[in-house]
Write a structure and sequence with these properties.
Shape: globular
Order of helices and strands: HHEEEH
Number of strands: 3
Helix content: 25-40%
Number of helices: 3
């Protein structure tokens, strides 16, 4: 997982913990499990429009977006975005 995605996970956890610290821990774990599950079908989620040339794919999980790339037999989670976060701003590739 890229360092930006790890920072995203920590930020998500801190945000949820403001209201429910226990749920923050379990939800971050769910997001991590969703990211690990990408290995089962790496090509199974759609390419993000306008980011096809970068190979960025999106898996949704409970309103959150796991943005990742597949390179050979490796999967790299690039970012994990919450509802309403701007993909263009987060990726800053265009």
């Amino acid at each position: 997982m890229a360092s930006a995605a790890q920072r995203d996970l920590r930020a998500i956890g801190r945000y949820i913990a403001q209201d429910n610290p226990v749920r923050a821990v379990t939800f971050v774990t769910e997001l991590e499990n969703a990211a690990q599950g990408l290995a089962e079908m790496p090509q199974g989620f759609p390419l993000v429009p306008r980011y096809e040339r970068y190979g960025i794919r999106r898996r949704s999980y409970r309103g959150y977006a796991l943005l990742y790339r597949v390179a050979g037999n490796r999967i790299g989670v690039v970012r994990i975005l919450g509802p309403g976060q701007d993909i263009d701003r987060a990726l800053n590739l265009i």
